[in-house]
Specification:
By secondary structure, the chain is α+β, with helices and mostly antiparallel strands. 19% of the residues lie in helices and 26% in strands.
Length: 627
């Protein structure tokens, strides 16, 4: 194995020029002090003494001497030590006063930082019970390395999700803020969601941002404005792990005393030179593999200046500069669309004047389109209002749309909306505020708990902007009404957020309707069969349907039907991915799979009169729609 001085002399040169440290190292060698980590070494060897003398004079040791390697190891272990942490403070042996004196002025801040550093624990991983270090930047947000988080998480489309584990379930991750040598641990705090996972590739920080399920009563580590330390000394706090494959086991053992995987504090300095990459800061603290994700801490300012991500033991270590960490956190910790506020329900009486869906919206007589009905075999599952002026009614009326709910599934059987393309407005979207409908029991509605820590979105059945027309107050009231939990179904993020034919069907039909008849009525809902995926007590639908009624240029009614399948997404909600497809089908087909009846509307279905048509038309473009 090559000598340290032959690979990189910078660390040894730094120690050699530190007269205080060198005096202490020489005194420890001469005194053969066991607690300095020198037990078992032949300190009386004349070769070793010559090596120390040569190093003290010129910084070089004889290349052909085994004693030279021993001298380098002793210098390193005493010049760049790794101190055990116990009871949230670092323990310095009595004969290492130099580092004690240097760290003591910042002890209070260091101890606060120690409490905010934890070990990333895993359940369900094939090889590792833990994978690295992480630390608090907010009371419920931690940072670590991308290569640490990659062991249990990955990107899926625009979302970040947990990987499947060996037990067929998703892996689970948590952070344990103790794991100290000789100290009883404490319950780990579960990691609920991955907020950010840096892409692989050049120019990307080795960084991940994770959200905890609960806030913790520990002070987050403050972030410096710059990665340049205010003082001379820094420390790395983390969990070094034994790795004899990459490190000289004897040298590592001399520094870490065969105690690995426990929290430690390793002092050192920032190194000059190295990569010109503005993402990277070099340091010379003693670290091992488990230190990935450790905080690089400025002892003087009491702030984090970098996120450690790797290097080579005995040589040089690399970390993500705090400027890059700050940039990532600024984006990653913005409120998620899944973390939406929930507004307290209004009184049931306040809904008395909602007009709801209007069957005569397209015109009278032949253009009259009533609300679909639920088959009689399912009629007992239709939820009725239990409060308000319309107690007993199955139709929940809102501004420009109505909903009929399933009692057993807590989702809509039917949503029905009127859209006036000539009077649409497009108000700016603020932060989503979802609310329960007070006219039915809250327990009969799927609330926020279903959508935490996974890739499920609250899929609007009546699109947010569809009923937003009329005067300003009317339109804004309609938009707010779409944010009722009664109007949402759990949909995979890739389905709900993607740019697809499904998302633009109403727009396409409106844009292709005669200018004199810019109105459509839209019915939408999930397919509530038994083939969904059971998750958190709910059966997640695999397919959705839509029926759009409009007036053709000849004044006659046209009604077309569509189905969207997300079944191939749902192998597992947290990490599923893949394509999905939109099909035009007959209204009769929608009736078969939903148990709904659209009355005479099938007579206005152009596919219903297509001879020999039995299946569906896949819509890879809107131009394939048969109107």
């Amino acid at each position: 194995m090559q000598r340290l001085s032959a690979l990189n002399s910078a660390v040894l040169d730094e120690i050699r020029q530190d007269s205080e440290l060198m005096d202490e190292i020489e005194a420890a060698v001469k005194g053969r002090r066991a607690h300095a980590g020198l037990e078992g070494l032949d300190l009386d060897s004349s070769s070793l003494k010559k090596s120390f003398a040569a190093f003290a004079e010129s910084g070089a040791v004889p290349d052909d001497s085994d004693a030279g390697s021993m001298a380098e190891a002793i210098i390193l272990r005493l010049g760049r030590p790794s101190f055990l942490i116990q009871n949230d403070t670092f323990v310095i042996p009595p004969d290492q006063q130099v580092w004690k004196n240097r760290l003591q002025p910042g002890r209070a801040n260091l101890e606060a930082a120690i409490k905010a550093v934890g070990r990333v624990e895993l359940q369900g991983h094939a090889s590792f019970p833990w994978v690295g270090t992480a630390w608090l930047v907010e009371s419920d947000v931690i940072v670590t390395n991308r290569h640490v988080a990659n062991e249990f998480a990955r990107q899926s489309g625009r979302a970040f999700v947990f990987r499947p584990g060996v037990n067929g379930q998703l892996m689970r991750a948590a952070i344990d803020f103790k794991e100290e040598f000789g100290i009883a641990g404490e319950a780990p705090v579960e990691i609920e969601r991955i907020l950010y996972l840096a892409p692989d590739g050049p120019g990307q920080p080795d960084m991940a941002v994770l959200k905890l399920r609960t806030s913790v009563n520990r002070q987050p580590i403050p972030l410096a404005e710059s990665s340049e330390p205010e003082g001379e000394y820094i420390s790395v706090i983390g969990y070094p792990a034994r790795d004899d494959r990459r490190n000289d086991p004897d040298v590592a053992r001399s520094i870490f005393k065969d105690i690995y995987e426990k929290k430690r504090l390793a002092p050192g300095k920032v190194q000059s030179g190295g990569p010109s990459d503005t993402l990277v800061l070099k340091h010379d603290c003693s670290t091992l593999g488990g230190n990935s994700g450790s905080v690089v801490y400025d002892v003087t300012s009491g702030k984090a200046i970098a996120l450690h991500f790797g290097g080579r033991f005995e040589l040089s270590n690399y970390s993500v500069r705090i400027e890059a960490v700050r940039r990532v956190l600024a984006g990653a910790t913005r409120p998620s669309r899944r973390d939406v506020p929930v507004e307290a329900p209004a009184s049931p009486q306040s809904y008395a004047d909602r007009p709801g869906y209007q069957p005569g919206f397209l015109g009278d007589d032949d253009l009259y389109v009533p609300l679909p009905t639920v088959h009689r075999l399912r009629s007992s599952d239709v939820l009725r209002q239990t409060a308000g002026p319309h107690r007993g009614s199955t139709e929940l009326k809102y501004v420009h749309f109505s909903i009929v709910m399933s009692r057993s599934r807590k989702m809509p059987y039917i949503t029905a909306a009127n859209i006036d393309g000539s009077a649409l407005i497009r108000p700016r979207r603020g932060r989503d505020v979802w609310r329960f409908d007070p006219r039915i029991p809250q327990s009969a509605q799927l609330g926020n708990d279903l959508y935490q820590g996974n890739n499920l979105d609250r899929g609007h059945q009546v699109r947010r902007l569809d009923p937003v027309w009329g005067d300003n107050d009317e339109a804004l009231a309609a938009q707010e009404d779409t944010f009722h939990y009664t109007n949402s179904c759990p949909q995979h993020a890739l389905l709900n957020q993607g740019r697809t034919q499904w998302a633009g069907l109403e727009d396409y039909i409106l844009n292709n309707t005669d200018d004199r008849n810019l109105r459509v009525s839209v019915f939408t809902g999930p397919v509530l069969n038994e083939s969904g995926v059971s998750y958190r007590g709910s059966l997640i639908p695999e397919e959705y349907w839509k029926v759009v009624a409009n007036v053709r240029s000849d004044g006659k009614l046209s009604a077309t039907a569509y189905v969207l399948s997300q079944g191939q997404f749902l192998g597992d909600i947290e990490f599923a991915f893949g394509a999905y497809r939109t099909f035009q089908v007959t209204i009769r087909r929608v009736e078969e799979i939903t148990g709904l009846s659209f009355g005479d509307l099938s007579d206005s279905d152009p596919l219903g009169h297509t001879e020999g048509f039995e299946s569906a038309i896949e819509l890879d473009t809107f131009e394939r729609i048969v109107l």
